[in-house]
Design brief:
By secondary structure, the chain is α/β, with parallel strands linked by helices. The chain has a single domain, classed as Divalent-metal-dependent TIM barrel enzymes (TIM Barrel). Helix content is about 35%, strand content about 15%. It is built from 9 helices and 8 strands. It has an 8-stranded parallel β-barrel, surrounded by 5 helices. Helix 3 runs parallel beside helix 4 and helix 7 runs parallel beside helix 8. The chain is globular and about 45 Å long.
Length: about 270
């Protein structure tokens, strides 16, 4: 059976962030992920993980100025020093939280730079990050994101991401394969899973319903079928990663808004 991690940036928004760990554990989750931990001391987050018996399986490296619209630094020429400092901060958190994966966001493409320049900068930064993370036993993840939710994002397609990984050749560089983004950009999800999961280059999966990014049992994707495909491929290929639940509960941030939408999870 797939292993599911609650995304605490999107789920349980009826609670203060630090209280979402307890809420996720009460609903049966064994692991959590979220966008960014940096507003909190690592020790405070570690206490929540230990108290509630949870694993930290993923978070993002600092993305630049999020409030100003930045969505990562990795492809941005001239920001290399900032990228390195940000990733070093992420590694320090990963060590304390025993988190084996860091997602590095690529960034929004600036209009005044060529695609070739952006690609060169991106590959150089990602290769450096993978090299730094390796002694820590940590994987660096890159994620194709759809152009509807994040116009101008540098990385949009699975093939793009896998090409980067093959070019760099680092064993700890993996793809974060979000089936919500994949459905919007490429579709044919079962075929995509069968193509990419056995390669050993997929480090993490994420899910959400399409088109509204609600629970996975709301919308056009038959996740019950896809979970069976993942189970089958896991047996065949040995893939044993986590599936992050990165969706917005349809009931919103009302009391029990997340818990009331977990029928799909509790029936697995």
């Amino acid at each position: 059976m797939p292993q599911f991690a609650a995304n605490l940036s999107m789920l349980y928004n009826e609670h203060a962030f630090i209280n979402r760990f307890e809420a996720a554990a009460k609903d049966g989750f064994k692991a959590v992920e979220y966008l960014f931990p940096y507003a909190y001391e690592a020790d405070a987050l570690k206490d929540q993980l230990l108290t509630h018996g949870l694993q930290q399986v993923l978070f993002n490296a600092p993305p630049g100025d999020w409030d100003a619209g930045e969505r990562g630094l990795a492809c941005l020429p001239g920001r290399e020093d900032e990228f390195k400092r940000a990733f070093e901060q992420a590694l320090a958190y990963a060590d304390r939280l025993e988190c084996p994966r860091i997602h590095v966001m690529a960034g929004i493409k600036p209009n005044d730079k060529s695609d070739a320049t952006l690609a060169e900068t991106y590959q150089r930064n990602i290769a450096w990050a993978a090299q730094q993370a390796a002694p820590h036993g940590c994987d660096v993840l890159i994620e194709p994101i759809n152009t509807r939710d994040m116009p101008g994002y540098f990385l949009n397609y699975q093939g793009q991401a896998h090409d980067v990984i093959e070019t760099i050749g680092a064993a700890n560089l993996k793809v974060q394969m979000d089936l919500y983004h994949l459905q919007i950009m490429e579709g044919d999800l079962a075929a995509g899973l069968r193509k990419w999961l056995p390669t050993g280059r997929v480090g993490h999966l994420q899910i959400a319903g399409v088109p509204m990014r609600h629970e996975p049992d709301i919308g056009e994707i038959n996740y019950a079928y896809l979970f069976d495909v993942i189970d089958e491929l896991s047996v065949q290929s040995g893939w044993d990663g986590w599936i992050g639940c990165e969706y917005r509960p349809a009931r919103g941030a009302i009391e029990n808004g997340t818990s009331d939408g977990l029928a799909w999870f509790k029936h697995r």
